[in-house]
């Protein structure tokens, strides 16, 4: 399998690019944010639990997120690989993912980061908030809180994957097509 982690700050364009990459490389796209939002919409127990954290821009606890992610992976036994979007977001999630994949004789092939400046990203999110209906996109304080969560808990993952020689970064500023090309160049050379 080819297992790719799409990495980047909120608003970096992970979800947008995942839509193209999943088609091009026949990967199963797993967005933890989308799965949580689906559960919130359907008022499941998981959704109710996640909502309190998400609305504030806090991360959902690792235990809940890891369990959910594993069950989504289990639903796709015959896939050519996974495109992880929004997961892992903490070192403990990354370690749990490695252990879980190892139990299936699989590994993370590569992590690719979409890079962009915070100011551009905050503006993108506020813009998205006008149409997405996402509470966490509509308030600058909540957005800033998500960046704080990212800096504290998610940024250390760069070192984690660099140590494994699995970290790649592309410029996340440009047209959607340009960025798809940059990501594809990395994947084609893995
Ligand atoms: P964005 O990248 O724009 O913040 P996502 O849809 O990926 O959007 O995530 C939205 C929210 O969902 C996060 O702020 C967090 O509350 C929750 N979430 C998503 N993925 C994870 C994760 N791996 N661990 C913990 N919480 C998560």
How many β strands by DSSP?
5
The run of helices and strands is EHEHHHEHEHHHEH
> Which spans of ≥5 residues are poorly predicted at pLDDT below 50?
none
Q: Which cofactors or ions or other ligands sit in this model?
A: adenosine-5'-diphosphate
Largest sheet: 5 strands, parallel
First-last Cα distance? 12 Å
Which value, in Å, is the CA radius of gyration? 16 Å
Second rung of CATH, namely the architecture: 3-Layer(aba) Sandwich
- CATH-assigned homologous superfamily: P-loop containing nucleotide triphosphate hydrolases
Brief digest:
By secondary structure, the chain is an alpha/beta fold.
Which structural traits does this protein have?
single chain, five-stranded parallel beta sheet, Rossmann fold, binds adenosine-5'-diphosphate, 190 residues
Can you give a write-up of this model?
- This protein has 190 residues and is α/β, with parallel strands linked by helices.
- It contains nine helices and five strands, in the order βαβαααβαβαααβα.
- Strands 2-3-1-4-5 form a five-stranded parallel β-sheet, with helices on both faces.
- The mean pLDDT is 97.
- Bound molecules: adenosine-5'-diphosphate.
- The site of adenosine-5'-diphosphate has 18 residues, from α2 and α3.
Secondary structure blueprint with pairings:
Layout: E1 4-8, H1 14-25, E2 28-31, H2 32-41, H3 45-56, H4 62-74, E3 82-85, H5 91-102, E4 110-115, H6 118-132, H7 140-154, H8 156-163, E5 167-171, H9 176-188
Parallel strand pairs: 1-3, 1-4, 2-3, 4-5
Helix pairs in contact: 1-9, 2-3, 4-5, 6-7
